[in-house]
Every structure is written in structure tokens, then in C-alpha cells.
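Researcher: We're teaching a course module on how sequence relates to structure. For the next exercise, students receive a sequence and then see the predicted structure as C-alpha cells, so they can try to spot secondary structure elements on their own. Here is the exercise chain.
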Amino acid sequence: MNRVSSAIAPSRRHFLRLLAAAGLSTASAHLPAWRPGWQGAPLFEEIPAAASGIAWVHENAMSPDRYLPETMGPGVAFCDFDNDGWTDIFMVNSGRSDFYQPKAPVRNALYRNNRDGTFTDDTEKAGVAGGAEFGMGCAIADFDNDGYQDILVTAYGRCTLYHNNGNGTFSDVTARAGVASPGWTTSAVWFDYDNDGRLDLFLCSFVQFAVANNVFCGDNKLGKRFYCIPRVFKPTPSLLYHNNGDGTFTEVSGGTDIHKALGKGLGVVATDINADGLMDLFVANDTVQNFLFMNRGKGKWDEIALQAEVGFSVNGTPRSGMGVDAADFDGDGRQDLFVANVDQEMFSLYRNEGKEFFTDVAAPNGISQATRLLSGWGLKFFDYDNDGHVDLILANGHPDDMVEKYSQQVRYKEPLVLFHHDGTKLSNVSAQAGPAFQ
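Model: And here is the predicted structure for the students to work with:
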């Protein structure tokens, strides 16, 4: 796949370890007829935390005031930070902010792979605990081409860039690099937009939010607060940074369509939409239209989501875009797009028809039916059974913990969903995937 993201493209063996690290492992290379109550081998089985050594817990700072950042996070990335050939794990936690002052230290987690199915917490030794900002997402890549992977953490507050020193430790180089980006950043992607051999950085920016201008959402008569829909907050421009090659970055989005397009970005993927050798950007926005930034070269970007038909639903309305990914799911040589939304909005699988135009084929692939009552966040195209066809996994959960008080169908906790590609179309195989998907 001709694209760059924060994930590492693993080999089959590394992917099995990746799944185990995430609490899943493959039990078969072929699709079994597993279903609840049947004793056959499921596709995946859960690895207990006690067996892996991963005991970290995310703190979302939930409060009676229902501040919007509490509904989001955490990000996670798989990487090989010590170059030993084994996949390690970095996980983002929240931290101090204008609405949250933790009573006990809150920190990120960096787990080193022990090569035996277990992991060791190297966070403090590595110097990546964070906690000074309310963490959101992360993207990992070797931004200075020294052979070691570095860590970028987005946040409600300011970003943090950790440089890998090559000896198991990291240094906070945010100030020198010039990528602090105060505000509220969510997803990020490293990619080389100008083909100069250095990784540049795109940051999704979410809404204008602060305790001082917080909005009350709920029932005033009963005095009950609910989490606000992002629609009530103002949008912001996302940010593009050019890698100067000396450890510093320059923001280059000013004056471009990236700066002019005010959004509420929650997901981004970099890929070459039109096969011109230049990486483009697809951004999922929450309650406003999605963006498709086409890279025209020499620093010029065109936002074409409307004419490409990936900006709105088929009814012409904005949705709550969150998770995104890109892959050639139908094997025609063109990069297709996937975006997850909240319940009742349907998720979208956009087939690339060429000439910078897409068709939503979620319905014939069973995605619309399977996701109607779900809210999707992280997602990934991957080939779990090595049959040469791209499969899909969706991680879901409703952002409003009180949703069950006003909906009889939608639930706060939602299951994982797995789609298998049989060479013709995607099919929902969550029932065969194992108890973790139930």
C-alpha cells in the first residue's frame, strides 16, 4: 500500500506478536465456523493482562461537569523503539489541564517486548511518561533518519515530540523542533509530502475548547449535564509542518487550503489517491464535512472532498467522522478510503473510481447494516489470514456514557467488529472471531 501512517507494516510473525500485545492472538490461519457456544477454535483469543505483563490503565478524567476531552483518547502505537526486531508498544494517557488536576501522577506507557510473549514497562527509564498535557493520540516514525523511531504525542494542551537517543531513552525536543502546536490536536501522520526523503508532519486540530468558554449541555430543569456534541463548538484549521532536515520543522499550511478548511479533525491517513507520486491527505471531521487534500506539488494543496464525494453522506449531510484508513481493498490498483462515524450515520467504504472520484460501497459489503448502531474510532485494513485480500477491524464505543438513558438500541460499550474479504466483497465475521468480539 502506497501510504505512510503511524503504524508499522509488520511481517506475518511480527503481526502475530502485535495481536498478542493488543490482547489478541490468531488461533487459525483459515476462517473457522466459530460461534458463541461452539467449542471450535476462534480466529482470535484474548491474552490476559497477567500473562503479558501489561497492567497500564488509561485515566479519562471523567467528571460531573462532562468536559468534552473526557470522551476521547487514548492513542496507541506499535513500534520497535530499541531496534531488536521485536514489536514494542506505546500508549497515551491523559494529564494535567485546565479542567483536570490529577491527585496521583498520570503517565503514558512504553512497554518493551521481552521476546517471550511478555512485556516490561520501560516508561520511566525511557523518559516518555508525559502527564503535563492531556494526551490524545500518537504517531511514531524516524523523523531525523538516524535509524531510531521517535514519538509524537498529540494533546489537549500542546504536542510533545520525543527524540529516540538510540540507547533506550528519549529526549523531549518539542521546543527546538517547533511543533508544540498549542490547542487541541488529535490524530497525526508522518509522511513525505515533497519527496525530499524527510518525513513531514500533519496534525489534526479539533474544536476551540477551554473551561472558560465551556458550553452547558443537558437538562437545566433537572440540573443534569451531558457531554456536548462537537457541533456546538467552533472548528479550527489543521496544521502541516515541513521537515527542515536539521531537527526543526516549519509550519507551511498557512495560506493553503489546509489552513482555509476549518474542521474538527479526529482522523487522518496519508496516501496517493491519484497515483501521481505525491502523498495526499484524507481527514475525518466530526459534525462538519470531511476533507480530501490533494497534493499538487510545490506546496500547493486542493481540498476536493465535495466533488470527490467523500465529504458528506449520500444525503448531503456532515457526519461524525472519527477513524480512517486507506487501502486498495478491491485490488484495482487504486487506494480506497474508510471512515467511521457515530450510530445512525453509517460508516463509509469509499471505492476509488479514478479521476479523483469515489463511490460509497459500504452497503453491498454489509458495513452499513453491521455498523448502524455503532460508533467507530480506531480501525485498520489488514490481511489477517494471509489470503492476499484486505480485511478490516473496527474498534467501537459510544462517546456519551449516558446514551442508554435516551436510546433503547444504542449502548455505551460496543463490540469490536471484524470483516473478512473473500476476494469479491467484505463480510462481517465477528461471530466467528472469538469471545473478544462479543
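Model: If you want an answer key for the exercise: The chain has a mean pLDDT of 91. Residues 67 and 227 are 7 Å apart (CA to CA).
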